[in-house]
Amino acid sequence: MPSLKQYRDKIDSVKNTRKITQAMKMVAAAKLRKAQEKAQIAQPYAAGMASILSRLAGSMPQGTQGPALLTGTGKEQSHLFVIVSSDRGLCGGFNGNLVRYVREQISKLRKENKTVKLALIGRKAKEALRRDYSDIIIDTKEVGDYEFSTASDVSKNIIDQFNDGSYDVVTLFYNEFKSVLVQNPSMLQLIPFQLPHGNDNSDAGTGAVEFEPDEETILSDILPRNLGIQIYGAMLDSNAGEQAARMTAMDNATRNAGDMINKLSLSYNRARQAHITKELIEIISGAEAV
Fold first, then answer.
1. 72: which DSSP letter?
2. Which of 268, 252, 234 is nearest to 38 (CA)?
C-alpha cells in the first residue's frame, strides 16, 4: 500500500494537471470562436466560386473539351491525396480519425492497382503516415498560422505536376467542422473539378447570361484559383475542428482529473484512518502491557 506521502504527492500532481487542462480548454475555446468566424467568412466565397464554375461548365458549347483542370486526363490511374491535418496534438481522435480514413482510401485504390501519392499539410499527418507511406509522400508543409499563402503554394505545385502528367486525379482530405462535438473526415475531388451534386449541365446554361470572354478562357483563369481557395477553406475548417476537438478533449481530461482526485482522496483518508487506528492499537497494547 502506498504511504500517506505518496498519496499526497499523487493528489498534488493530478491537481496541477487539472489546472493545465482547464487552462488549455479555455485557450481552445477562445481560439475556436476566432477559427469559426474565419471559416464562416470563407465558406460563402468558396461556395460562390464553385457555383460560378458549375454554371460556366454547364454553359460551354457542346463538343468543347474545356480546360484540363475541368475535364481531367481521361484516366484515373494515378491519384494525389492532399491531406490537411493539424500541427499540434492533444485534440482527441481529430487527427487519428482522418489518418484512418486516408489509409482506407489508399488501400481501396491499391486493390484496384492504382498508384497513390501524398501531399501533407500539417505535422500530425506526416508523423502518422511517414512510417508506412514514406515512399509515396512527395510534399510536406506545416499549417502554421493558417495563411492563404500556404494553400496557394500547395495549389501551384499541384497544378505544375498535373500539367506534367504526374497525376490524373487530385483529392483533398480534411476534417469537416460540423459542430463543437462533431468533426467528420471528408474528401473533396479537386481535379477534375467535380460539379455539385444535383447539378445538371444541360440546364445550367439556360439562363440569359453571356460570358465575355468565352467560357473556356474564364475557366482556364478561375480553376487554378479555385484550387487554392478550396484548400484554404479546408484548412480553415480543419482549424475550427481542431480547436473544438481540443476543447472537448481538455474538458474530458479535466473531469477525469477531478474523478481521480476524489478517488485518491478517498484512498488517502482510508490509509490515514488505518494509520491512526494502528497507532492507537499500539498505544493501548503498550499501556496494557505496563
1. -
2. 234
